[in-house]
Design goal:
single chain; alpha+beta; 38 helices; elongated
Length: 1121
């Protein structure tokens, strides 16, 4: 797992939004496309003004200031539109460009008001829609922060209110006050809606940025997981069968998740036959005596250094290490690819191993040696069983190679005649006389030879005795001298390859990496110049480029991947076209290519949806205040707004029912239903869509519902104007009264448009239909249904077209419609991008979890779970793993009849079908470890309850067994390995080392009883196999308990193992036992009898290396007392 860097944040981690990478991401995903839309809109608007001016104005020279301002602004906007595509230039000057756009728009607005030919026609409601446009687009489309947007929008609104108030200084106060108040309400509403819109989009941008980073993080982790998985799998199995095993693991995980079972009655067999190979067995003579004097760390270090050296020799000689059995090492040459020189490779390796041990002996003075046996022939190689996979080889030739090692001579390489035939004349040999040391070789009439090392002849003339060691060195224990010398070899530690945090990014080449590094530093400088809120110093995400550590390289990979994502956003925005994820309909509407994702997007929950309806209510309130301030009131006005207010109130009641009715929901049943309905508003489309249509439709209708220009105005809106000056004309004429009313109804329509746009995550098609229907209706109302033409004027004094209410009404309706449709389309794309990113993140996270499970399963198939935790996680432990245990029960269970059963002929595919049966036996034994539970669950609980009530001293024992009853029966039993047809397991390894003394004696003894039950379960399982396969196999079991040393050795193929006298005696208990029986030592027998098992004394037997021992057979049908 990769170390956590800056971008590997947790869900609750507080991240800075001032990161230049986030600024660049927000610019590419939101600000840049919206700014292009805005520039397109204002260019179109300015061009329209120029065209209308050319068509309408008879005397263009009279409005020179207006046409010059609009033309210059048009030119500026076109230039900026072109420059917007030069990213490096534009990015560093975002605020400057935003201010230039704002100033140009403001200039257009004021020149439209203060044209020199129309200064006598000033009205308080002039250019309110255009300033509302400036305010709203400042929030939604200009690349500004919230604070800057609030300042610019407030300045725009206040300037309009103050300047027109001053310009109308001599007018009647009542004539001026009401329009100014209405304007202020409109601008306030525009500011509130714009600020809400910007806040929502900023949250969405930050949320999507986090998801994008998390997705990249998962991709990086996934690549590391895949690499670790391959490395881990190859550390267990050769590549030629690892892929099949990997697929099998993934299938097993899928079946576990789906809770399905195999339809196949047989377990998968991953075994292949290879011909013409050479098998080497090597044993370190004298190591058992040396190991008895070692500490756990010394033993693990010695074995790892020795076998690490042997692995290196094997690699040099094209040999594949198969397995380590205690201090025995065996390998094969000619796997997986056949080699014509396989025999030479094995002999050369054997000689090199003997030479290495000789150097150790001469350097340390420790009496150890190497005994090597080699035979050439055919093998079956692969993996059997379900747990603790270890690559192994089987055949009669393998057994013969093992015999060659045991019958060999220390310091020499012992070979058969078959191997000699493959050697040709590469080496000189002498008679090995193996038949004198092994009865099997004599019975099979195997002729053997000893290889003469060519180096011995070269050294003979110049041979000198080894230098005498210093007295201080001889004072040290042999194990200390040995371990210190071997550490100088520097063998790799187990699973060291999993802790190598190299770069995993394959997409970014070195030149691209340098380019992006420079660009990120450039971004940092730009962000630091854009405002005081950014730090002057580059954040860690940029500074990490200077870090050459592995964590820095991971940061670099994430930055590169993020920059690639940003570049993708900048270069391929599917607004109208097709991409691999999106498809366009009619060149405008956007859909996902994958229909399932489209359905998910349509039905996805919309958080904070009630905020949209709250904004709609604010717009309704502003409409009401504007119309009550300007328009005449009547019964129709009150009733219409009352109905809409009731509708909006009911919708708000539903949306906020969870907060409003929480305290009453327990006592009042309708409140509970309202709260449930409130939750459904955000999650169910068929609930929220009708509510949205009703709310938006009500606002769009009420905006013009009370429009009637032929009604009397009354004193409220038409004050006496006799004393009015010509600076602010009165509204006593029909035309001016109509212009006033139509203008403010138009403004209410524009507020309705804005209310529709703040429903950000609602369906774009729905908003498009509502806006399109509304704008068509408004065009009909304002152009065809009014009783008189409001653009008429005196022919002798023609009105400037920007003062023509009908023209400006149509112009601003079209301007807002185009702006809000394009804005809604971009938001729809952004919401789809958000949905797509989260969907991809979800899939990648699931794939990552699958990889994690596969890795965990792989590692736990090499190591026990508590040992695997030592090597996996966010920080891999680089220390040696070694532990010493005081009380571990060790079991060896073999099927001796299998050796007789195993034959190699055409009928059984040269032994392959025999191994298939062995695979079934071992796999069934493995399943015993996973599937058994105490059969006496209820009886045991009742017995424990009665014992506890009778004797309080047994309460601790009761607690112990209650804990055991909640777990699988053999959860404490750990499979160590298989050796041919022998199954090795141990219990007591899950106890935290050093805490064995804290356990009561009964807990330690319970492990031995469980191991006996496990042996009985294996025998029962074998009986079932016999019934189905029509065989008569019987199990021979040996059990012993005592102290052991556990550790992980081997760098190329790490292997967990246990060592010690306890293990050796348990092995002898099995090899000297009888078929169908469980043989134990006298010490183990006493503990079993205390647990209620009956044991039968066998008597004295001769045990190799131990002399005569008294042993016992356990009666299988005993039970707890």
């Amino acid at each position: 797992m990769p170390a956590k860097g800056k971008y590997f944040f947790s869900e609750n981690e507080d991240c800075k939004v001032t990161d230049p990478l986030y600024e660049k991401y927000r610019y590419a995903s939101q600000q840049h496309p919206l700014l292009l839309f805005l520039l397109f809109i204002v260019v179109l608007y300015c061009a329209t003004l120029v065209v209308v001016f050319a068509c309408k104005e008879v005397l263009p020279g009279e409005h020179l200031a207006f046409i010059i301002t609009v033309s210059v602004a048009l030119l500026i906007f076109i230039v900026m539109y072109v420059l917007a595509y030069i990213e490096s230039f534009f990015w560093c000057r975002l605020k400057l460009f935003a201010v230039v756009i704002w100033v140009c728009l403001l200039a257009i607005g004021y020149v439209s008001i203060f044209d020199k030919r129309s200064t006598s026609q000033l009205a308080a409601w002039e250019q309110v829609p255009f300033f509302l446009f400036i305010i709203f687009t400042t929030y939604t489309m200009l690349p500004l922060g919230m604070r800057d947007a609030v300042i610019i929008s407030s300045v725009s609104a206040l300037s309009h209110v103050v300047i027109l108030s001053i310009a109308g200084e001599g007018s009647d106060k009542m004539s001026l006050l009401n329009p100014v108040i209405a304007n202020a309400l409109i601008f306030l509403c525009g500011n509130l809606m714009g600020a809400f819109h910007k806040h929502q989009m900023q949250d969405a941008s930050w949320d999507l940025y986090r998801y994008t980073l998390k997705s990249i993080q998962v991709q990086m982790k996934l690549k590391i997981e895949k690499r670790q998985q391959e490395s881990l799998l190859l550390s267990i199995l050769p590549a030629h069968i690892s892929m099949g095993m990997k697929l099998a693991i993934i299938e097993r995980l899928k079946e576990t998740n789906d809770r399905k079972k195999h339809d196949n009655n047989f377990h998968s067999l991953y075994v292949k036959r290879h011909q013409n190979v050479s098998i080497l067995y090597a044993d370190i003579v004298g190591f058992t005596r040396l190991a008895s004097d070692c500490s756990p760390k010394e033993l693990v270090v010695m074995l790892n250094e020795l076998f690490g050296k042997f692995d290196q020799i094997a690699k040099e000689n094209e040999c594949m290490r198969i397995k380590i059995l205690g201090d025995c090492y065996y390998c094969v040459s000619g796997l997986p690819v056949s080699l014509p020189v396989h025999a030479k490779n094995c002999v050369k390796m054997g000689l090199d191993m003997c030479e290495a041990i000789k150097q150790v002996r001469e350097a340390t003075g420790v009496d150890i040696n190497m005994r090597v046996g080699i035979h050439s022939g055919n093998v079956l190689c692969g993996v059997i069983g379900l747990r603790k996979w270890q690559y192994d080889v089987w055949s009669h030739d393998v057994s013969l190679a093992n015999r060659m090692e045991s019958a060999g001579v220390p310091g020499r390489v012992h070979i058969t005649e078959a191997t000699l035939n493959h050697l040709g004349k590469a080496y000189e040999v002498e008679d090995g006389n193996g038949h004198l040391r092994d009865p099997y070789l004599e019975a099979m009439n195997i002729k053997t030879y000893l290889v003469i090392d060519p180096r011995s002849k070269q050294r003979a003339p110049n041979h000198r005795p080894p230098p005498t060691r210093a007295p201080d060195g001889l004072k040290m224990r042999a194990s200390v001298r040995m371990s210190r010398y071997l550490e100088s070899w520097g063998a790799a530690r187990p699973f060291a390859h999993l802790n190598h945090r190299e770069s995993v990014s394959s997409e970014a080449s070195a030149p691209n990496r340098r380019h992006r590094k420079i660009f990120l530093l450039f971004l940092c400088a730009c962000v630091s110049l854009q405002g005081p809120r950014q730090d002057a110093v580059c954040p860690p995400s940029v500074a990490n480029y200077k870090n050459t550590s592995q964590k820095g390289r991971m940061e670099e990979d994430i930055n590169d991947k993020m920059m690639s994502t940003i570049e993708g956003l900048s270069s391929a925005k599917p607004r109208c076209g097709k991409t691999e994820d999106f498809r366009g309909l009619c060149g405008f509407l956007l859909f996902f290519v994958e229909m399932g994702l489209e359905k998910e997007y349509r039905t996805i929950a919309i958080p904070k949806l009630r905020g949209y309806f709250a904004c709609a209510s604010v717009v309704l309130l502003c409409m009401f205040l504007v119309q009550i301030t300007i328009m005449p009131q009547n019964a129709q006005f009150g009733i219409s707004f009352g109905i809409v207010a009731i509708i909006m109130g009911l919708i708000l009641c539903v949306c906020f029912a969870d907060d409003c009715w929480r305290c009453c929901s327990k006592r009042w049943a309708p409140a509970r239903h309202l709260r449930r309905l409130s939750h459904k508003v955000e999650t169910l489309p068929f609930v929220r869509l009708p509510l949205a249509v009703i709310a938006i439709g009500s606002l769009l209708i009420i905006a013009v519902f009370n429009l009637s220009v032929d009604q009397p105005t009354g004193n409220h809106t038409v004050p006496d104007t006799e004393n009015s000056t010509n600076k602010m004309p009165t509204v006593d004429s029909t035309e001016e009264r109509t212009a006033l009313i139509v203008s403010y109804y138009t403004y209410c329509c524009l507020l309705g448009f804005i209310a529709c746009s703040v429903f950000l995550r609602m369906s774009f098609e729905l908003k498009l239909m509502l806006l399109s229907g509304a704008v068509v209706g408004y065009f009909i109302v304002f152009n065809m249904c009014l009783p008189l033409r409001i653009s008429s004027g005196n022919s002798t004094d023609p009105r400037f077209f920007m003062k023509d209410t009908q023209i400006t009404t149509n112009l601003y309706l079209a301007l807002f419609y185009i702006t809000l449709v394009l804005l809604s389309k971009q938001i729809d794309y952004y919401c789809r991008l958000d949905c797509l990113q989260k969907n991809k993140f979800k899939k990648e996270h699931e794939e990552f979890e699958t990889m994690e499970n596969v890795n965990r399963l792989l590692l736990e198939n090499v190591l026990p779970a508590h040992v695997a935790a030592h090597f996996i996680g966010d920080k891999l432990n680089e220390d040696w793993y070694h532990q010493s245990y005081d009380c571990v029960c060790v079991l060896f269970a073999s099927v001796p009849d299998f050796k007789v059963f195993y034959t190699e002929c055409d009928v059984n595919k040269e032994g392959l079908e025999c191994l298939r049966l062995l695979n079934e036996i071992i796999a069934d034994f493995d399943e015993v470890l996973r599937g058994a539970y105490f059969s006496l669950l209820y009886d045991a609980q009742e017995n424990l309850t009665s014992i506890k009530s009778a004797n309080s001293e047994l309460s601790s024992s009761s607690s112990l067994f209650q804990q055991l009853l909640l777990k699988p029966k053999f959860s404490g039993v750990e499979k160590i390995k298989t050796i041919g047809s022998t199954y090795m397991a141990a219990s007591g390894l899950c106890v935290t080392p050093g805490q064995e003394n804290n356990l009561d004696q009964e807990r330690q003894h319970a492990q031995i009883g469980i191991m006996v039950e496990f042996a009985v379960a294996l025998m029962t399982k074998l009986d079932g196999i016999n019934r189905h396969s029509f065989n008569n196999f019987r199990l021979r079991v040996g059990i012993n308990h005592g102290p052991v040393i556990a550790g992980v050795i081997g760098a190329r193929k790490p292997q967990y193992d246990i060592w010690g006298n306890t293990v050796n005696v348990a092995s002898r208990m099995e090899s000297t036992g009888e078929m169908g029986k469980i043989q134990v030592t006298e010490e183990t027998c006493r503990i079993l009898e205390s647990l209620g098992y009956a044991c039968e004394c066998r008597g004295l037997i001769n045990v190799k290396g131990k002399g005569e021992l008294t042993t016992y057979f356990v009666c299988k049908h005993s039970d707890f007392c």
